[in-house]
Amino acid sequence: MESTNKIALVTGGSRGLGKNMALTLAQKGNDVIIVYRTNENEANEVVSEIEKLGRSAAAIQLDVADTKAFTGFFDTVATLLKEKWGRETFDFLINNAGIDRYSAFADTTEEDFDELVNVHFKGVYFLTQKALPLLADGGRIVNLSSGLARFATPGYAAYGSMKGAIEVFTRYLAKELGHRGITANVVAPGIIHTDFTKRAFASHEGMEEHMNAITALGRVGQPEDIGGVVAFLCSKEAGWVNAQRIEASGGMNL
After folding, report:
1. pLDDT surpassing 90 at residue 97
2. What does pLDDT average to over the chain?
3. What is the helix (H) or strand (E) element at residue 46, kind and residue range?
4. What's the structural domain count of the chain?
5. Using CA atoms, how far apart are residues 247 and 226, in angstroms rounded to an integer?
6. Which of 25, 153, 203, 246 is the most exposed place for a label (fewest CB within 10 A)?
7. For residue 1, is pLDDT > 60?
8. Which member of 36, 125, 156, 159 is catalytic?
9. Residue 244 contacts residue 185 (beta carbons within 8 Å)
């Protein structure tokens, strides 16, 4: 029997921000496909948490930097949709997966640059392209940017540039996919306490106090500060929000 629930596909959904997005989407009544790179156990734990909420979920492995794997990946997604949900499409694509390569501009290596662009821009660009046949008309695309695309913090010239590219790309998606009723928006978190930022906090004494001081709400963000924003953009109420950048940073560097 065909599922009537909306289905979200979340890259990097096994931990951190992606995990919170997946769980919040499930809490709002959606089913979820978790995409993970290496940690199958973590991904399966998120699937179990979603199922405890009364929603359906599944986990699929993919390295979003490996564009040659995308065709096979979406073949797997298509089979899963048919066998588990009785559907040929999913509804929400959340491009969340990311890596961190901190370095001053003068010290950035081509290897680090290429790794960043493959995950944060090229991967997002072509994963979204390959997803189009399976993305339902009236669906939603949510791309993750960063406060670092608005304000400049030394050490993130490459990363911030990739996120700036994502913001322009998202406007093009909105323009070119509007005829199918698909919206495309950006969520730009400020600094968040996750595995992604743990090393930075540990290696820079006083960083937390500094971040608190430059944030209007006076604290560093938590994953749950972001998941609800993504879930909102996938809701019926957000259907007229398109080609927008929503920064969820607590008011950093105002």
Report:
1. yes
2. 96
3. helix 40-52
4. 1
5. 10
6. 203
7. no
8. 159
9. yes
Confidence of residue 191 (pLDDT cuts 50, 70, 90): very high
Burial of 158 (0-12, 13-18, 19+ CB in 10 A): buried
Whether residue 38 is predicted with pLDDT greater than 60 in this model: the reply is yes
Residue 229: pLDDT over 70: yes
- Write the single-letter amino acid at 79: T
Residue 3, pLDDT score: 63
CA–CA distance, 244 with 253 (Å, rounded to integer): 20
State residue 198's pLDDT score: 80
Q: What is the CATH number of the domain that holds 52?
A: 3.40.50.720
Secondary structure percentages of the chain, helix, strand, coil, to 5: 50, 20, 30
Burial of 237 (0-12, 13-18, 19+ CB in 10 A): exposed
Cα–Cα nearest to 234, from 19, 16, 17, 21: 21
Task: Verify whether residue 125 is a known catalytic residue.
Answer: no
Task: Give domain status of residue 253, yes or no.
Answer: no
- Amino acid residing at 84: K
Tokens for 177, please give them: 């996919």
Note whether residue 91 is domain-resident: yes
pLDDT, residue 200, reads: 80
Which two tokens mark 205? 């004494």
